[in-house]
């Protein structure tokens, strides 16, 4: 019996030892994986294949693996406009790349400025003597703008093209809040500050309609002009003014109608498109799948560019990006967390920068967050560092607030800026509770004790205090604009009042100094700092997340096979509706989340590329709100 017990103990010890060894090997393997950078692939001779299955943004938001795993899906892929332009420009001068292939079937578009930046890069690629081939099942405004620069634009026989133009509808919750007796206590300054109208009205006010109509008209004119320059034979008037006649002329065949209107050059399947490219760049020797051709994907190509990046030997110009809604915390990248951005700027004070370029692509946000970023920028200016601002799609409200320290402001004709005004919203539920027999009562030492009372309503004293705070913030905003632009406060008030301006109008009014992209702003900063032609550009906080891309690739195949998603014209409209629904839910939830005084341009949400920034609809939030709305 004693012998058997000893043998048993020996076996248990061996088992425990083996378990420990395997555990150590597991952690060693895990450490090795995390210590090594994932290999995105190799660069091959042939075509540069850009399968743009997502949106173009200013700054890519990192993927949260935990959230993705819990949701069992990946967020919509985002492509930084700067990376796409860099990839295309590098391919134009690289002997390994003979052509450019863009699959736009899953393309969700981007802001007007970003679309122009990528379209200009495509034109430079074609000017270099290399062909461009695009393919899509369904083309929409943004994909058509890119396809206009193609040597051959292909559309699937079951697909087509649709031109909608900018604009759309915002949802107004005034009637809904009245139905449930919820009070939206609004505090605002500005005739055109229509950001609060969705919470109080059932439709657009006339000043808001006038402002939005002018912006839509300008953006529409710019889009048509850009398309005509690239594709002069396209019959845009027929496509937009007589849709039924246009389709009837092709017997309601959407693909043939697109061809007849000059929007595309050829009709064919994805396989036929690939075979046509293979005659130019050669067949893919790695696979015998039909329709493949020798190519390099975006990820290995951009990784190869990063590996061989020449930073230069001259002075350093810092570029900080303010993208997305401005908040007070550490949010981002992809969202403008003020503390995070201020930290990047303060760290850069020790980097011996010769100039600072602030890239703004934001509709604004909280006043306190905007001021935190402005003060951090001002610390560079106080240190004698020239500050230049480059505006992207939006630099409105708080986005303009952070631009006020600049000595030079660059924008594009399609940039939306201004919206100089502030507002605040406090919802209170005294009416809703009273409907169910719930009231609020108590004692207070002062009129402000226990205020703001979201359950019992706001007292006149607290209303006066909050309105004074909003008016004080607006006065501060006007003084910053007046000092920055060298005008009087009264003139700043005339340009303000919450009105949104397009880049052309803003330039005429003196809110921006000149047209130009980010490269133009960097070049001006280099001249201002006397750096000559040899200088280094340091994008602050622009550290790649290789593990996020690795995680995305690991989940991509499951996401693709599990998604019941189409790419035809109906699917394009459906995606737009999903974006509108998600936007509506976000606006309604924003009302319920008191975030302080806002300098934000909600009008910008109805403009191109602004629907829902690279996010899948928050399904849980939607279900909660739908249950609330439909419950009786």
Nutshell version of this structure?
This protein is α/β, with parallel strands linked by helices. Helices cover 46% and strands 18% of the residues. The model is unreliable at 34-38, 551-564 and 611-632 (pLDDT under 50).
Summarize the structure in words.
By secondary structure, the chain is an alpha/beta fold. It has three domains: 40-163 and 231-309 and 544-632, 2-enoyl-CoA Hydratase, Chain A, domain 1 (Alpha-Beta Complex); 168-205 and 422-486, peptide peptidase (sppa) like domain (peptide peptidase (sppa) fold), CATH 3.40.1750; 313-421 and 496-543, 2-enoyl-CoA Hydratase, Chain A, domain 1. It contains 24 helices and 23 strands. Strands 11, 14, 16, 17, 18, 20, 21 and 22 form an eight-stranded mixed beta sheet that branches. The chain has a six-stranded parallel beta sheet with strand order 9-7-6-4-1-10, with helices on both faces. Strands 3-2-5 form a three-stranded parallel beta sheet. Helix 5 links the parallel strand 6 (132-139) and strand 7 (152-161). Helix 3 packs across helix 13, helix 14 runs parallel beside helix 15 and helix 18 (460-485) packs across helix 19. Keywords: Hydrolase, Membrane, Protease, Serine protease. The active site is at 193 (proton donor/acceptor), 397 (nucleophile). InterPro entries: ClpP/crotonase-like_dom_sf, Pept_S49_pIV, Pept_S49_SppA, Peptidase_S49, S49_SppA_67K_type_N, S49_SppA_C. Belongs to the peptidase S49 family. GO terms for molecular function: serine-type peptidase activity.
């Amino acid at each position: 019996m004693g012998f058997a017990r000893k043998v048993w103990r020996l076996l248990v010890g061996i088992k425990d030892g083996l378990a420990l060894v395997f555990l150590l090997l597991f952690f060693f393997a895990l450490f090795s994986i995390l210590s090594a950078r994932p290999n995105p692939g190799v660069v091959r001779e042939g075509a540069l294949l850009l399968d743009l299955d997502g949106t173009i943004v200013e700054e890519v938001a990192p993927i949260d693996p935990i959230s993705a795993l819990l949701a069992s899906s990946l967020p919509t892929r985002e492509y930084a406009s700067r990376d796409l332009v860099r990839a295309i420009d590098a391919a134009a001068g690289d002997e390994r790349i003979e052509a450019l292939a863009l699959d736009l079937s899953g393309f969700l578009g981007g802001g007007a400025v970003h679309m122009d930046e990528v379209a200009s890069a495509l034109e430079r690629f074609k000017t270099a003597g290399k062909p461009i081939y695009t393919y899509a099942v369904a083309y929409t405004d943004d994909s058509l703008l890119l396809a206009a620069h193609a040597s051959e634009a292909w559309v699937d026989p079951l697909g087509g093209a649709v031109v909608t133009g900018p604009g759309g509808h915002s949802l107004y919750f005034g009637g809904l809040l009245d139905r449930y007796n919820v009070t939206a206590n609004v505090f605002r300054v500005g005739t055109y500050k229509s950001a609060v109208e969705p919470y109080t009205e059932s439709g657009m006010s006339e000043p808001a309609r006038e402002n939005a109509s002018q912006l839509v008209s300008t953006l529409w004119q710019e889009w048509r002009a850009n398309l005509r320059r690239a594709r002069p034979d396209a019959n845009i008037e027929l496509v937009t003014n007589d849709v039924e006649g246009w389709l009837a002329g092709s017997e309601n065949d959407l693909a043939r109608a697109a061809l007849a209107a000059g929007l595309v050059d050829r009709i064919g399947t994805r396989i036929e498109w690939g075979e046509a490219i293979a005659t130019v760049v050669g067949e893919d020797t790695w696979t015998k799948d039909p329709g493949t051709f020798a190519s390099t994907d975006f990820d290995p190509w951009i990784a190869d560019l990063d590996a061989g990046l020449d930073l230069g030997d001259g002075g350093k110009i810092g570029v900080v990006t303010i993208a997305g809604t401005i908040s007070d915390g550490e949010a981002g990248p992809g969202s403008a967390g003020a503390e995070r951005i201020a930290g990047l700027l303060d760290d850069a004070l020790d980097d011996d920068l010769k100039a600072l370029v602030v890239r703004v692509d934001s509709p604004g946000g909280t006043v306190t967050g905007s001021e935190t970023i402005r003060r951090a920028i001002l610390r560079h200016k106080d240190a004698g560092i020239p500050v230049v601002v480059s505006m992207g799609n939006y630099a409105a409200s708080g986005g303009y607030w952070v631009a006020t320290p600049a000595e030079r402001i660059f924008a594009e004709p399609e940039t939306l800026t201004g919206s100089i005004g502030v507002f605040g919203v406090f919802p209170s539920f005294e009416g809703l509770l009273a409907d169910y027999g719930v009231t609020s009562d108590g004692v207070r030492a002062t009129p402000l004790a226990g205020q703001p009372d979201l359950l019992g309503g706001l007292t006149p004293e607290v209303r006066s205090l909050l309105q004074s705070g909003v008016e004080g913030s607006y006065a501060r905003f006007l003084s910053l604009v007046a000092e920055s632009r060298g005008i009087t406060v009264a003139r700043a008030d005339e340009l303000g009042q919450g009105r949104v301006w397009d880049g052309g109008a803003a330039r005429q009014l003196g809110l921006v100094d000149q047209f130009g992209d980010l490269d133009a702003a960097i070049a001006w900063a280099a001249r201002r700092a006397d750096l000559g032609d040899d200088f280094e550009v340091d994008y602050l906080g622009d550290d790649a997340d290789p593990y996020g891309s690795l995680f995305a690739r690991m989940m991509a195949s499951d996401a693709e096979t599990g998604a019941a998603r189409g790419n035809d014209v109906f699917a394009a409209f459906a995606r737009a509706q999903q974006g509108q629904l998600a936007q509506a839910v976000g606006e309604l939830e924003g009302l319920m989340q008191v975030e302080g005084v806002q300098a934000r341009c909600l009008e910008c949400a109805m403009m191109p590329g602004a629907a829902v920034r690279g996010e899948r609809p928050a399904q849980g939030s939607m279900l909660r709100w739908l249950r609330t709305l439909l419950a009786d």
